[in-house]
Amino acid sequence: MAPAHLFDSLPILLGFLPVLLFLAALLLLDSYKLVTGRAILVTMGVGAAAALVSFAWNRGLLGAGLDEGALRGYVAPVIEEVAKAAFLIYLVRSQRVGFMVDAGIRGFAVGTGFAVVENLYYARALGDYGVLLWLVRGLGTAIMHGSTSGIVGILSKSLADRHRTSAWWVFLPGLAIAIGAHAIYNHFFVNPLLATAIMCLLMPPLVIAVFERSERATQEWLSSEFDSDLELLDSIHSGELGETRVGRYLESIRHRFPGTVVADMLCLLRIEAELGLRAKARLVARSAGVEIPLDEVEADFAEMEFLKKAIGPTGLMAMSPILRQGGRDEWQLSTLER
């Protein structure tokens, strides 16, 4: 017979299980395995730290005389969503996420870590207040934290890719939506069951719909870019590069640089195309449950850096229309380095 305290703790589990199960579902939907288990744990840890920072700010503002209703309805949503979004901004700006899929997963993981710590605090402060309280906190508050930060990650990455920039403004629309949804949820405090129902009906389906759309976009990008890399390598090895757009561009700048520098430019394009194919092949293999080992990648990256130094800043600037830089091109190479 199970001890009584085990049954007493079961309602509290409702505050943790829904958001953890939803995060696990997103990981299962990630067919290309863009996010590792270690990355998820690190991201949840960052979300936990964001919860502690937000708690300190909120307590400080209450101590300074801020009205509790104003804090809950207007100020806390801003503090908490900005705290969760800070890490997502870093991930997007440093090219640590390549698609909306992994940006969304990392975002939901930040919110999950935040929600776990917040519910641990309430479990200790309030004790067991029955199934209703933890149903609201688990299906409502926790899912809200995961979904809002997931939306920040997805929308920010989408705008960064579409406009080919990681300027600060690309993060504002997602952050505004997250703050607005959080504030609206908090305003339903007088009717928590209604807030929970709205959160469950709207946020998870929205996250999953955008997630599936991003999966299709990832597949389309892999297919088109894989073909592009193969065509470039085939033209280099067959000596028919001059008939391609890249070859014609190199020919147009040939007179501005010594022959050795132009040769280094061609070698740099070849190495980047080969590394790009390796990165894409790993993603495709992961979707089939196979992990491809990396061989001699360090030597390729060392040669690539040597060629960049030999070409020089002026040469690299001249190559910018045909060189891989920024966005997913930089991300896919960074996955091989990591």
What characterizes the major β-sheet?
none
Order of helices and strands: HHHHHHHHHHHH
Distance between the termini: 49 Å
Which whole number gives the mean pLDDT? 85
Helix/strand/pairing class, anyone?
mainly alpha
**Fraction in helix:** over 70%
Q: Which helices and strands occur, and which strands form pairs?
A:
Elements: H1 4-13, H2 17-29, H3 37-63, H4 68-93, H5 100-126, H6 131-163, H7 172-187, H8 192-238, H9 245-253, H10 259-287, H11 297-319, H12 327-337
Task: Please name the defining characteristics of this protein.
about 350 residues; mainly alpha; 12 helices; disordered N terminus
Describe this structure as you would to a colleague.
The protein has two domains: 4-213, no CATH class; 239-337. The longest helix is centred in the middle third of the chain and has 47 residues, at 192-238. It starts with a helix and ends with a helix. Helix content is 80%, strand content 0%. The chain has helices at 4-13, 17-29, 37-63, 68-93, 100-126, 131-163, 172-187, 192-238, 245-253, 259-287, 297-319, 327-337. It is an all-alpha fold and 338 residues long. The model is unreliable at 1-7 (pLDDT under 50).
